[in-house]
Amino acid sequence: MKRCAQCNGPVSIEDRFCENCGFDLRSSQNQTADFYQKNGSVKGKISTEIIKSANKRIQLKNSQMPIAKVSWVITALMSVILLMSYLEIITIHPALLIISFFVLISAFVVGFMFKGRAKKLQSLIDGDNLIASWTMDLMDKRKYTNNLFRAKKTKNNALFVITSVLMVVIFGLFILFIEESDERLYMALTGLGILLVLAIVAFGFPYYYKWVNLRKDGHVLIGAKYAYVNGYFHNWDYPLSGLQSIKIINDPFEGILIMYYYTDRTLRHTEGIEIPTTAYVDVDALIKSIKAAN
Fold this sequence. Notes:
Layout: E1 2-3, E2 10-11, H1 34-37, H2 48-56, H3 65-86, H4 94-125, E3 130-135, H5 138-177, H6 181-214, E4 219-223, E5 226-229, E6 232-235, E7 242-249, E8 255-264, E9 267-276, H7 283-293
Antiparallel strand pairs: 1-2, 3-4, 4-5, 5-6, 7-8, 8-9
């Protein structure tokens, strides 16, 4: 349970102000929220209604839970379809039965995985496994979003070039061995159509993600093996995964860089999270706490 630094009263991680004393929970100074004092405070005290109203506007929702719930619904739906087919209540084509079975398995695995992620994120929201939390201001969020945009755009451009070259080679070979001119034209148009779709995805999605990221909550929650950053949840507590390094960065913004690794069917991968920090966060103490917990 997180507690107020001024009155030691219980507070929630998404609260901006303590409901007991009005202390600004995201400030390093022992002060109340001056901005809200004009709305009914007396001698530095803020009414509980105003504080609750301010806190309500910045509540943090568990972004992993809806995905888990949708997966469970799909699992239940596919189970009903397969059961009805088994009992001969309905007749389904064998190919659709196979697809339904694989959708059932996939939805169950996704639901199970995101249920676990939802519990981990909730432990940060509740403060049980929380080491530090803050909220990006508008300028920091823009820097953070622009940095992600540049990285995504560079990666997509490289993948598009590689994919385009491979497609030109593959479709070119097919066209060379096709004798009918109509079939050659059909093959060429098919290749161009696929390239057009890939181009839209490669060049358009970075702008879409930038638009989405600028509208997210800007909250940062750091735990020993989890991190929630502007709507996205990262964790490195699975088998064959862990923290690789954490350090202070000054470019493209002042903050920290968390590097962690995970292993899947394509072997080991490394992921980096660049997170802008605020002036009142003791970055050195934060880094020591994370390293000690890993």
